[in-house]
């Protein structure tokens, strides 16, 4: 089982059971023959024929079919996606932690591409790109109107080729071009260090194929430096997720043997699964437990888990498991709420379909979807609060997002009010000199949330947020 767990959810190896050759063909649906909707497929075929014969200029047939599949899947939810040859290759590169590109983590903001963080040592890092920079053009193409995936495609390419990015830096109120030479990027998903004698900080920026090995290596390093740790901070802030088996492994490192880490539920039998803190649920090769040499003390070291609005998917699984088993105190802000499972099925040698097949549930049976993990202790990102957190996109904000399956969502007017206030504050912030607006680096002694986490571990006073609002679901808890 462990060898088949992949991506932001898991990738199940498989192929499409049937290929549409005529509109009357029957296909396998959940183990039984079910007729295809003949009338609608005849309409699809008719439209295809009209476009082929009547459109102002010739249209490539393969592109028409590819676009039709893309549109069908895009109408489901924000995370289902059709992969053509190029995007399938890039998807595989992303989960491996190695790809050719410029080396930035990105998100979307007001139709533009926002730099979340340049990857340390990457071409973008060396070129001086900074968090919160906005990319307005990629070569000669305006970014506004492009999807995030389309923007990624344009920034990736062959090694040693160049890409011209036009950057708008809000805090300096200027636009400037940056030419970056693409190269192979090896993302470093685990960082960590001893913050002070007895207290360690370990940060996971993503859950990739190498994450578990890098995590074990970093933990071993830390315990060699300080074998008598009194506390540890597991930092999952801005971790967008990744591979499910990596999330199960990291959770297992701290949890008792065989307890439930996460469960999933969907239409397919294989979507109804329970993943436990045991090697068969995360090891990639039979008999090879990557956690076997971890220090025994890790199971009992006092733990704080730091999260924020950017913690999603696999990082929410870890936070939820540790919280439900009372293994650690979750601190920070309510997480993103990406609680759905995507299965990737190859459609041929170089194309595939990523489709949402299940929802995640924490060990207590609570859906993460469109709600996220609510911390035990709400803590702001700075001593002045989290003035712009309300502006950050969450799963519940995404068009066509899946609901939690546990009751209607509460569209809180308080959150809309908080957004209005945050927009006004952002306008005021933009008037300040750049040096007064620099966001402290995660892991530094100016990292306010991290300092509160260390205070929690030491039994000292924690500055709790007085302004954060929680997105609630009016729900009856579902037992899974």
TrEMBL record:
PANTHER family: CARBOXY-TERMINAL PROCESSING PROTEASE CTPA, TAIL-SPECIFIC PROTEASE
Region described as Disordered: 400-444
UniProt name for this protein: S41 family peptidase
InterPro entries documented for this protein: ClpP/crotonase-like_dom_sf (IPR029045), CtpA/B_N (IPR055210), PDZ (IPR001478), PDZ_sf (IPR036034), Peptidase_S41A (IPR004447), Tail-specific_protease (IPR005151)
Gene3D superfamilies per UniProt: 2-enoyl-CoA Hydratase, Chain A, domain 1 (3.90.226.10), 2.30.42.10, 3.30.750.44
Keyword Kinase found: no
Domain PDZ: 88-170
Any Pfam family matching the protein: PDZ_2
This protein's UniProt keywords: Hydrolase, Protease, Serine protease
Family recorded in the similarity comment: Belongs to the peptidase S41A family.
């Amino acid at each position: 089982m462990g060898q088949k767990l992949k991506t932001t959810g898991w990738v199940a190896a498989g192929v499409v059971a049937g290929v549409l050759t005529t509109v009357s063909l029957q296909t396998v649906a959940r183990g039984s023959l079910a007729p295809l909707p003949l009338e609608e497929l005849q309409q699809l075929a008719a439209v295809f024929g009209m476009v082929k014969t009547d459109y102002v200029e010739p249209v490539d047939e393969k592109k028409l079919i590819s676009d039709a599949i893309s549109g069908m899947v895009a109408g489901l939810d924000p995370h289902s996606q059709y992969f053509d040859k190029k995007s399938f290759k890039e998807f595989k590169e992303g989960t491996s932690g190695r790809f050719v590109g410029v080396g930035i983590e990105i998100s979307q903001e007001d139709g533009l591409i926002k730099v979340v963080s340049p990857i340390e040592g990457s071409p973008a890092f060396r070129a001086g790109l900074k968090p919160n920079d906005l990319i307005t053009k990629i070569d000669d193409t305006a970014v506004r109107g492009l999807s995030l995936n389309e923007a990624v495609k344009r920034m990736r390419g062959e090694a040693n080729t160049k890409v011209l990015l036009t950057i708008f830096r809000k805090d300096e109120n200027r636009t400037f071009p940056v030419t970056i030479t693409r190269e192979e990027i090896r993302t470093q998903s685990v960082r960590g260090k001893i913050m002070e004698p007895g207290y360690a900080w370990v940060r996971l920026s993503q859950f990739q194929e190498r994450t578990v090995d890098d995590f074990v290596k970093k933990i071993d390093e830390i315990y060699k430096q300080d074998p008598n740790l009194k506390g540890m901070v597991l930092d999952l802030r801005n971790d967008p997720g990744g591979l499910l088996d990596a999330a199960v492994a990291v959770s297992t490192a701290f949890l008792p043997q065989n307890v439930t880490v996460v469960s999933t539920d969907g239409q397919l039998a294989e979507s109804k699964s329970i993943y436990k803190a045991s090697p068969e649920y995360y090891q990639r090769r039979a008999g090879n437990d990557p956690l076997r040499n971890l220090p025994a003390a890790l199971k009992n070291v006092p733990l704080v888990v730091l999260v924020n609005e950017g913690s999603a998917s696999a990082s929410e699984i870890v936070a939820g498991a540790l919280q439900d088993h009372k293994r650690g105190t979750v601190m920070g802000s309510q997480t993103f709420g990406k609680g759905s499972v995507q299965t990737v099925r190859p459609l041929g040698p170089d194309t595939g379909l990523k489709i949402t097949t299940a929802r995640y549930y924490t060990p207590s049976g609570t859906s993460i979807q469109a709600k996220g993990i609510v911390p035990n202790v709400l803590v702001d990102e700075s001593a002045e609060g989290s003035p712009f957190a309300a502006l950050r996109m969450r799963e519940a904000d995404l068009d066509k997002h899946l609901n939690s399956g546990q009751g209607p969502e509460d569209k809180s007017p308080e959150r809309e009010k908080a957004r209005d206030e945050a927009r006004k504050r952002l306008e005021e912030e933009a008037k300040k000199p750049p040096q007064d607006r620099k966001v402290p680096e995660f892991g530094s002694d100016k990292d306010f949330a991290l300092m509160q986490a260390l205070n929690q571990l030491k039994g000292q006073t924690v500055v709790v947020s007085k302004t954060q609002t929680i997105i609630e679901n009016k729900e009856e808890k579902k037992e899974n």
